[in-house]
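Async update (no meeting this week)

Hi team, since we skipped the sync, here's where things stand on the single-chain job. The sequence we agreed to prioritize is pasted below, unchanged from the tracker. I ran it this morning and attached the output directly underneath so nobody has to dig for it. Comments welcome in thread, and please keep replies under the output.
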Amino acid sequence: MKRLILVCTFVFLCSVACNSSMRDGAKTGGLKAGMPDTLTLPSGEVVYDLNGRWDIVTRVSNSVTYRGVIDMKQEGNQFVGTLESGDFPVLETSQKIKGKLKGNEIEEIQFNSMFGWINNCGGILEGGKELTIITPLVSENLDVVSTLKKR
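Output:
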């Protein structure tokens, strides 16, 4: 549990530091219309464009590693990632990730595991080309960290 809290705190602090340096004091989350790898929503809000194929590596407590390819579809500020291939355990659905963006941050994110949809903490790095997702499986005493890199 302490390790999970430490990892979530680390990701949060890295995200805040990254966002603060990108923002230059602006309240828009650091993203401006026309920036590469972004979408401008009808409301005028700018978010990262997560559409496309992503390589995913998920590590479970440094003992098991799963790899695969996720096809991410985004409508507005909401996204769903579907597992195209890989060695993840088979689930009833191939949907693996879903969430919501706000500016240059992940506002909500869930990861589909053998325990069902689990709320996570996550961050966007590398100008929208990398996602880090931390899945708390406290009941199983496991640390699960997923890293996605856009192809």
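Quick observations from my side:
Confidence is low (pLDDT under 50) at residues 13-28.
The chain has one helix and eleven strands.
Reply here if anything looks off.
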